[in-house]
């Protein structure tokens, strides 16, 4: 029927205990007889796997009411079914309210006793099985969740590496050093943090900003590497690098870093007042990532030497950019940037001082 069933009997009358023992012999269970409530609690402690308690209410030292409260309030014992034996029908409602699972009326009816005991043991075993099954399932779910998290982390790491490689490819065309990528990436993340962009989104911005100029791959060397000012038609071709970058990264909406890189590549030359390119977006129509990158990109570009210009001083850079607040730049975003100008300048200078090429994500985030 059931294996290793343990039933605790509690009654201060040895005759009642013997009678219950004889009536329960057919269950072939282990019966533990106790004479009062204190002995009953000690028996539960000594036998962790108890399937049923059958107890009288009127017992010395600790009565059935006290025992019932203790059992049902204990996190380790409250699932043990308790059948209360009573000769007073008025007590039934009280014990059921305290958590008793069933009751037996004195004098005992053999058939009723067997059915009630059988039902309680069956319910207890089913509950134990469900609990054990849930525990196993929880372990399996934890394992699967950990495996999924590892897979997602690996996928995200792959996205990061792809972003880095694409960004480096554009830099090789533009004769830039790895420090420019690292500078744009770190300064973008910091400005994003100051702007209140959530942490996970700041991480995406950190890597997606690497892709801001990836479209330069499609610009002819004669224009991309030309020293000095570009002719109007040449500048028109140069502006196409935004659209080319968007096309390179199109169709990747399931990959948050690549999708964010597409938006940044397309929009980082848009201007707050609507005079930018390629679409003439205005104000909040420009994605916040692009508004961040446009500021730090110009900041780094002005402070560093390029084939077409000398490096400007921090004073010159500050003056030029301040004049563009509310025109090229989001004025609130630029205000945050300007309020922390010393921090950004120190970070930019330190990155360019350590101007080694970036060959891996690990090196980039050092």
UniProtKB/TrEMBL annotation:
Keywords assigned: Phosphoprotein
HD-GYP domain boundaries: 155-353
Domain of life: Bacteria
PTM sites of type 4-aspartylphosphate: 56
Alphabetized Pfam families for the sequence: HD_5 (PF13487), Response_reg (PF00072)
Domain Response regulatory positions: 6-121
Protein name as it appears in the record: Response regulator
Organism: Geomonas propionica
Phylogenetic classification of the source organism: Bacteria, Pseudomonadati, Thermodesulfobacteriota, Desulfuromonadia, Geobacterales
